[in-house]
Amino acid sequence: MTLAMSTDMSVPASHHPIITGILLGLAVGITTICCIGMASMRDAYQRIHFSTVVVSFSTTLVIVAVWVEESDPQARIKVVLIGGLLFVMNAVLNHATTKAIRIKERLHWDVQPGEGIPIVGRDPPAGGEQRK
Predict the structure, then answer these.
(1) What's residue 110's pLDDT?
(2) In whole angstroms, what is the distance from residue 48 CA to residue 32 CA?
(3) For the chain, how many structural domains are there in total?
(4) Any idea of the CA torsion for 121, 123, 124, 125, to the nearest 10 degrees?
(5) What is the per-residue pLDDT across 23-76, written as a single tens digit (0 to 9) for each?
(6) Are 47 and 38 in contact (CB under 8 A)?
(7) pTM of the predicted model over 0.85
(8) For residue 89, how far is the Cα from the chain centroid?
(9) What domain range includes position 23?
(10) Do the domain assignments include residue 77?
């Protein structure tokens, strides 16, 4: 006699639309709040931080919603790969955008003396303390 143990720890199918709706609603809510935040910031350097929140949290919520709703492993893997690609490319896009903004404003990328930006290895640490 063998005992069959159920290892299925998934959510009942009747709850899938409710959970998916909540997750997608949260993703839309976060995106809306970040859009309002972007519109209320005073310069592009502050605005760029709000896109990171959208890509990080909203994308994660969409991934979890697809994971709950779809039982197809191929769909689950694809959504995780797309979310990971968005997460990595967001950092690259933010850096490139910030660099382009700085070049447009200052006509150069390099930090110049007098800009108040300490350069590691060239400037002493803040507070006047020297490393030993």
Answers:
(1) 73
(2) 15
(3) 1
(4) -80
(5) 999 999 999 999 999 999 988 888 888 888 888 899 999 999 999 998 899 999
(6) yes
(7) no
(8) 10
(9) 16-106
(10) yes
* Location of structure tokens 């949260």: 26
Position 65 in a domain: yes
Cα dihedral 42→46→49→51 (10° resolution)? 30
Residue 6 lies in a domain: no
H-helix or E-strand spanning residue 63: helix 59-69
In angstroms, the CA 131 to CA 73 distance is 54
Total Cβ atoms within 10 A of residue 104: 9
The tokens describing 105, both together, are: 């404003």
What is the distance between the alpha carbons of residues 18 and 12, in angstroms, rounded to a whole number? 11
> What are the E-state strand segments in 1-132?
none
Tokens read off for 83: 């979310």
Give Cα 109 to chain centroid, integer Å.
25
Q: Is residue 124 one of the residues assigned to a domain?
A: no
Query: Scanning the structure block, which residue is given the tokens 């809306």?
Result: 32
Q: Taking a C-beta distance cutoff of 8 angstroms, is the pair 28, 34 a contact?
A: no
The label of the residue with tokens 């003396």 reads: 113
